[in-house]
Amino acid sequence: MSRPVPLLSASGLTKTHGRTPALRGASVDLHAGEILAVTGASGSGKSTLLHCLAGIVRPDGGSVSYDGRRLEDLPEKRLSELRRTEFGVVFQFGQLIPELTALDNVALPLLLAGTDRARARVRAGEWLERFGVRGQEDLRPGEMSGGQAQRTALARALVTGPKVVFADEPTGALDSLAGEQVMTALLHTVRESGTAVLLITHDAQVAAYADREIQLRDGAVAPLGVTA
């Protein structure tokens, strides 16, 4: 029986920041609907791997393929389009735009994709409700709790119906209760929609939410349990 073709696949990725190697031949596959946790110590290359897989930065070597297309062959305009429509990205601190309300933050990707303002705001409100922050539409990020802001960031990442969500330490700035609420909301939503998730975390409890886990060590994928 043939194995399913990965939705997102990276082979032999290398990346150096200045003189410091961040990735040393990392390879990873992500399948449609799968939640994959990438764990490892600080400085192991986790965030750099995510940035390469999401097309945010280009690797120095190796290849990234998404849905049969090599990202390194795509022009920057097409990569930007992918990040607006088929990829969703969530960072540790949410990175919401401080001047915008929760509703406008979530509506922004739809507006950039050409959705008219009224429809974008309606859909944004629906996604805020799905993540349990209905009633906070007019709050700006500085007026929200950390958990509310991160659930708003998740709503923004998913409002376009992406095929892949890249979550970089999405609970790293939250207390344990808020982190659990964020992960529960994320998993419920992506299971319902069939969205694949690449989850970067150093927290074993967060990694336990995933279907599968890989570890990075010194920029390469290591067997699980290897830490030295």
From TrEMBL:
Keywords, comma-separated and alphabetical: ATP-binding, Nucleotide-binding, Transport
Name recorded for this polypeptide: ABC transporter ATP-binding protein
A GO molecular function held by the record: ATP hydrolysis activity
PROSITE patterns for this protein: ABC_TRANSPORTER_2
Cellular component per GO, a single term: plasma membrane
Species this chain originates from: Streptomyces swartbergensis
Pfam family, one: ABC_tran
CDD domains in UniProt: ABC_MJ0796_LolCDE_FtsE
Entry-linked InterPro entries: AAA+_ATPase, ABC_transporter-like_ATP-bd, ABC_transpr_LolD-like, MacB-like_ATP-bd, P-loop_NTPase
Start and end residues of each stretch annotated as Disordered: 1-20
